[in-house]
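dumping this here so i dont lose it again. seq + smiles for zinc ion
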Amino acid sequence: MKFKNIIDISWPITEHMTEYKNQKSIACTDLATFEQDKYRKSILRLSSHTGTHVDAPSHFLEQGKTIDQVSLGSLVGSCRVLDLTAVQEKITRQDLEKYDICADQIILLKTKNSFCQPTDLFNPNFIYIEEAAARYLADCKIKAIGIDYLGIERNQPGHETHDVLLRNDIGLIEGLRFAHVEPGNYFLCCLPIAVQGLDGAPARAILLEI
Ligand SMILES: [Zn+2]
């Protein structure tokens, strides 16, 4: 496949990066230093939902698949970045109905979340997907959905948005960054690290400009 450009849409991982509800889960310590050992090696502590990551169904479903059981086929392929930067609070069904969303598409949502700095404190008022919009995406039978914040819902007691998407086996990518991305068609490669049995895993995500 020929492509013009690789666009990194991953959230840079640092000890100072934004974390969900400001939970302090990230630490990077030396295992070997150049000064002492003449080589460098580090220990990295992350949450399963640090930065750009994929949620596995087991995040909210008792019998759900774990991240190693999630099909990579749902996270790699042609995708559409939709411009939802005008949305002020939450993405509704009406916001999505304007687009011709079809089965097997990978849909990535560029919202004003993308314009926060990667090290800002957690913003509890981030743009999220409301339940009816999640149901619409499930009815459309899309392959995967991606959003540009560390969550896809906000304090829903039954986690309905997650529940609908995960029950319908829709790939769920959180923590993407689109400030530098024009809405349009691309090829997505998002590969969660291969940790066995976890409820999610950090991923590197790139768009290929075709
Ligand atoms: Zn998550």
